[in-house]
Design brief:
Elements (H helix, E strand, L loop, with lengths): L4 E2 L9 H7 L9 H18 L5 E4 L3 H12 L5 E6 L2 H12 L3 E6 L8 H10 L3 E7 L1 E2 L4 E2 L2 H8 L5 E5 L11 H4 L3 E5 L11 E5 L1 H10 L8 H11 L8 H17 L1 H21 L3 E2 L9 E5 L6 H12 L1 E2 L1 E2 L8 E5 L6 H17 L9 H15 L7
Parallel strand pairs: 1-13, 3-4, 3-5, 5-8, 8-9
Antiparallel strand pairs: 2-10, 6-7, 9-10, 11-12, 12-15, 14-15
Helix pairs in contact: 1-10, 2-10, 3-4, 11-14, 12-13, 13-14
This protein binds pyridoxal-5'-phosphate.
The site of pyridoxal-5'-phosphate has 14 residues, from helix 3.
């Protein structure tokens, strides 16, 4: 049996150090040893988010933190703008509607980023907007939205910028305080190289003021309560997922050892590697200029059954890739390269994809593809990522 390689945009493979930590026995979460660990984790999370504000850990998948953002920052009847350029943009809309929040939707074609022009037009149509809800990286399409520009545009306005960074934090730069993001959140199973089950959320000073004014009726996702616990004695309101937090401590230690610049550099280089390979195969990329660094969406040749390609990759080569969702179902492959993935995994993934498309009667070039991919990886590793990519 071949080794299975998980190249999906979440969950992602676990480093051995993290797996060993996860296997450890339980400790008690209110005792000094664990409180000290939570204190260290808090410092590391603030370092990761690049913020001076507390970062709250919640026992939930990423959508739990999205829900917490909506219910704590907005009240029934408030108006928000949703940037909807994919599945996860839609999720913002679904969560907000569930809580009776009035949603203005800006639809962006799947594969394209939002522009400031779009936002300006929408704000004329929806003048009472209290927040803009967006993905840093739209995982269903592989697009990177221009968060830095949006934050600059909103700086002087009384509108909160709420960013789902689930497939961006720990993958590409997203400095919360420097850019002026009001709410940044992520999950454990993508860039953070952990199993699913933890989410993280941090708020700016003005976002906290909004929560204090709102006095949200929240029992479990009670961000004010969680903040008080952190500030008082590094604790959590409820029993936390103890082993996941121990794994997180290990993962953040690995990030510290490497330095985030180097983590981002590798993610960038892997992205260049997959994009070069797809082009060399004669295939088209879904996200053209503004692309995320954790996955690459590749359009399949006309008439090729995407599901058959994915099955072939898995069965013949042990390579697990993701497909498209909704209107993109069967038409694209989403090649994940986030977290604990290296050039060797990606090389195997490219080879499997190339041969699987050919096996499904798709037209694909195979000459020199792996060499070109490897050359792109080495070049991008040497040169590093562009400073102004957003
Ligand atoms: C994975 C993902 C989610 C969903 O997270 P869950 O952990 O499945 O709740 C939301 N937004 C983005 C951008 C994601 O990549």
């Amino acid at each position: 049996m071949d080794k299975m390689r998980l190249l999906t945009p979440g969950p992602t493979p676990l480093p051995e150090e993290v797996r060993l930590t996860l296997a450890m026995d339980m400790v008690h979460h209110r005792k000094p040893g664990f409180t000290a660990l939570l204190g260290e984790i808090q410092k590391d999370l603030q370092w990761l988010f690049e913020t001076s504000q507390p970062v709250i850990s919640l026992a939930s998948s990423g959508s739990g933190a999205m829900t917490a953002a909506v219910t704590n920052l907005f009240k029934k009847g408030d108006q928000v703008l949703i940037i909807e350029g994919g599945k996860f943009g839609e999720r913002w809309g679904n969560i907000a509607s569930t809580y009776g929040i009035d949603t203005g939707i800006i639809s962006v074609p799947w594969g394209k980023p939002i522009t400031i022009g779009h936002i300006e037009t929408a704000l004329r149509q929806y003048p009472k907007v209290k927040g803009i809800l967006v993905q840093a990286s739209e995982t269903s399409t592989g697009v990177l939205h221009p968060i830095k520009e949006i934050a600059e545009y909103l700086r002087e306005k009384d509108i909160l910028l709420v960013v789902d960074g689930i497939s961006a934090v720990g993958i590409s730069p997203l400095p919360m305080d420097k850019w002026g993001i009001d709410c940044l959140l992520t999950g454990s199973q993508k860039g953070l190289m952990l199993p699913p089950g933890l989410s993280f959320i941090s708020l700016s000073e003005r976002a906290w003021k909004r929560v204090e004014e709102n006095r949200p009726r929240e029992f479990y996702f009670n961000l004010l309560g969680e903040r008080d616990k952190i500030l008082k004695n590094s604790q959590t309101l409820f029993t936390p997922p103890i082993n996941l937090l121990m794994g997180l401590h290990t993962c953040l230690g690995l990030f510290r050892q490497q330095g985030m610049e180097n983590v981002f550099r590798r993610q960038w280089a892997l992205t260049q590697m997959v994009r070069t390979a797809a082009t060399a195969m004669g295939l088209t990329l879904l996200a053209e200029d503004h692309y995320t660094w954790g996955l690459t969406s590749i359009k399949l040749p006309e008439g090729v059954d995407g599901q058959a390609v994915l099955s072939c990759c898995a069965e013949r080569y042990g390579i697990i890739l993701a497909g498209g969702q909704d209107s993109l179902k069967g038409r694209i492959v989403r090649f994940g390269h986030m977290g604990h993935v290296d050039y060797g995994d990606v090389l195997a993934g490219i080879m499997a994809l190339m041969h699987s498309i050919a096996a499904c009667d798709g037209e694909v070039k195979t000459d020199n593809v792996l060499e070109q991919a490897m050359a792109a990886y080495e070049k991008a590793s040497d040169e590093g990522y562009p400073e102004d990519f957003a």
